[in-house]
């Protein structure tokens, strides 16, 4: 059967777009298939008010100046909010319990608990043990609640389902944000890649020397295929493989299930935060409500409220109004009930049921951190894999997906005997 392209790329998220650009640079042909109506994947911005953007997915250029999207933004003339990066550093993080900021002694005790917890995780991981984070920290500590909420938000799963090895391996502070949306930055960067949108992949046949990818619009024959879809999609069985994937690959997929962090953006008709109120908060109440809140550091009169893990999924199932109410309540916990009359609009996410990802990012289960390497390994010299789930250190990040796409493209070029 004649070959239509060197590489069939499944998914036009950041990893797929990066791979396409690198393959083009290396002189290889490619076809990018995307099931949804847009490019960018989990990098997506929506306008919450005229000229004001809210990132439903990735929002921070993690790592700051070392993030490759900083240079990309500069090249495209896109503004980044570098001047307020200090607000997201751990030493400037704000803690509030039952509507009151922690006093000096309480804050010091809270930070000690955080540091002790991080050290406990690092020590266990350094000894080669990969257990649940919940096994090594003091969950009865009075400051455990914001820590647990933070882990659920950062990893999309609660601490009993988070690997110590994966946790210890992740690096980088939040960095800073894109003034007009990280998702818009990604869309602008990727707009020069030709993508077949609304083209859902149904089956990948790799039984011959090449691959055949079946879609509702027809089949495409290639020398290789690069899967950049999430582990949520791979685990769902929506894409059928013929022959089926080997057991070691299936185990890798199942060992890296998707976590969920849901975000709620609330826009106000005035500055309800004040110059001293803008910042990044961990808040919790004795009634069990906890969240992380970005009281818009960029000065856009928008608060972003973050909830992950079981609570995030539960809240998602209650619907947009429940998410809106929760978010407004959490902002009111910090800035008082008067803020309610200034609420104009909200945007809420529903990542666990998002049909094209089925979650926010891949989170290694306890004992499964090594599966990231197995997920990245090609199968039969024809099936390649990329995405944030396949990398260490920058897993779960936009630029981690970017780096994985470039590496996959180079690996494919090597396999096809093209000099990188």
Any descriptors?
alpha/beta, FAD/NAD(P)-binding domain, 2 domains, single chain, 7-stranded mixed β-sheet, Polyamine Oxidase, Chain A, domain 2, 21 strands, globular, 420 residues, 8-stranded mixed β-sheet
Give a quick rundown of the structure.
This protein has 2 domains: 5-39 and 193-257 and 362-415, FAD/NAD(P)-binding domain, CATH 3.50.50.60; 90-172 and 261-353, Alpha-Beta Complex (Polyamine Oxidase, Chain A, domain 2). Helices cover 32% and strands 22% of the residues.
Describe it.
The protein has 420 residues and is α/β, with parallel strands linked by helices. The chain has 2 domains: 5-39 and 193-257 and 362-415, FAD/NAD(P)-binding domain; 90-172 and 261-353, Polyamine Oxidase, Chain A, domain 2, CATH 3.90.660. It contains 12 helices and 21 strands. The protein has helices spanning 14-25, 68-76, 104-126, 144-155, 164-169, 182-190, 231-236, 247-255, 309-318, 320-335, 371-376, 398-415, and strands spanning 5-10, 30-33, 45-49, 52-55, 60-61, 94-97, 100-101, 176-177, 195-196, 203-205, 211-215, 218-227, 240-242, 258-259, 261-268, 279-284, 290-295, 302-308, 343-348, 361-362, 383-385. Strands 1, 2, 9, 10, 11, 12, 13 and 21 form an 8-stranded mixed sheet that branches. A 7-stranded mixed sheet has the order 7-6-16-17-18-15-19. It has a two-stranded antiparallel sheet with strand order 3-4.
């Amino acid at each position: 059967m004649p070959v239509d392209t060197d590489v069939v790329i499944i998914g036009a998220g950041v990893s797929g777009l990066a791979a396409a650009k690198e393959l083009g640079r290396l002189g290889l042909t490619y076809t990018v298939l995307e099931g949804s109506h847009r490019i960018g994947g989990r990098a997506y911005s929506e306008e919450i008010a005229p000229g004001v953007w809210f990132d439903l997915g990735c929002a921070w250029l993690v790592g700051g100046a070392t993030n490759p999207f900083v240079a990309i933004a500069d090249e495209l003339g896109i503004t980044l909010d570098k001047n307020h990066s200090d607000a997201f550093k751990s030493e400037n993080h704000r803690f509030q319990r039952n509507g009151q900021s922690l006093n000096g002694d309480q804050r010091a005790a809270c930070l000690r608990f955080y540091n002790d917890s991080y050290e406990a995780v690092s020590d266990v991981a350094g000894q080669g043990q990969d257990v649940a984070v919940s096994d090594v920290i003091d969950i009865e500590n009075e400051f455990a609640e914001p820590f647990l909420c933070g882990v659920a938000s950062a990893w999309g799963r609660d601490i009993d389902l988070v690997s110590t090895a994966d946790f210890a391996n992740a690096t980088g502070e939040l960095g800073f944000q894109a003034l007009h949306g990280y998702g818009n930055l990604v869309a602008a960067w990727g707009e020069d890649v030709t993508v077949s949108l609304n083209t859902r992949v149904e089956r990948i046949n790799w039984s011959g020397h090449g691959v055949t990818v079946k879609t509702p619009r027809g089949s495409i024959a290639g020398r290789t295929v690069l899967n950049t879809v999430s582990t949520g999609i791979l685990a769902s069985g929506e894409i059928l493989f013929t022959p089926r994937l080997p057991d070691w690959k299936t185990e890798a997929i199942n060992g890296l299930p998707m976590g969920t962090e849901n975000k709620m953006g609330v826009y106000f008709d005035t500055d309800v935060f004040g110059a001293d109120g803008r910042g990044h908060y961990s808040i919790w109440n004795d009634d069990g409500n906890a969240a992380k809140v970005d009281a818009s550091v960029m000065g856009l009169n928008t608060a972003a409220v973050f909830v992950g893990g079981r609570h995030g999924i539960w809240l998602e199932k209650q619907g947009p109004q429940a998410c809106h109410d929760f978010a407004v309540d959490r902002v009111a916990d910090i800035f008082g009930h008067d803020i309610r009359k200034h609420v104009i609009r909200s945007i809420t996410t529903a990542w666990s049921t998002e049909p094209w990802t089925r979650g926010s990012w891949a989170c290694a289960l306890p004992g499964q951190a090594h599966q990231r390497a197995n997920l990245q390994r090609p199968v039969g010299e024809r099936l390649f894999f990329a995405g944030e789930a396949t990398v260490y250190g920058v897993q779960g990040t936009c630029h981690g997906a970017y780096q994985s796409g470039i590496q996959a493209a180079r690996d494919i070029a090597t396999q096809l005997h093209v000099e990188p």
